[in-house]
Specification:
mainly alpha
Length: 85
Amino acid sequence: MAMNKDLLGVDLYNIRQMFSNKTMDELIDEYGTLENIRIEACKKEAEVIINHLKNNVVVSVNVNVTTTGTASNHTGTGTGTGIIQ
């Protein structure tokens, strides 16, 4: 599936709602400080974005390969496909 702004938007909205639906006292009990709350919220949003990219991005890479050496004096070209991790 291709990247989808609607799906990503809903996932980000859900993360923000998760934090918005808690009281400040609940958040401080869970994360300790206001700074930690902000950091955790950003990390959760980053995780949603990364997972969306991992699950939806398709990358095509053309590879040209040239070989030379003392044992082989042949040149070749070709294409390759694979997974970028």
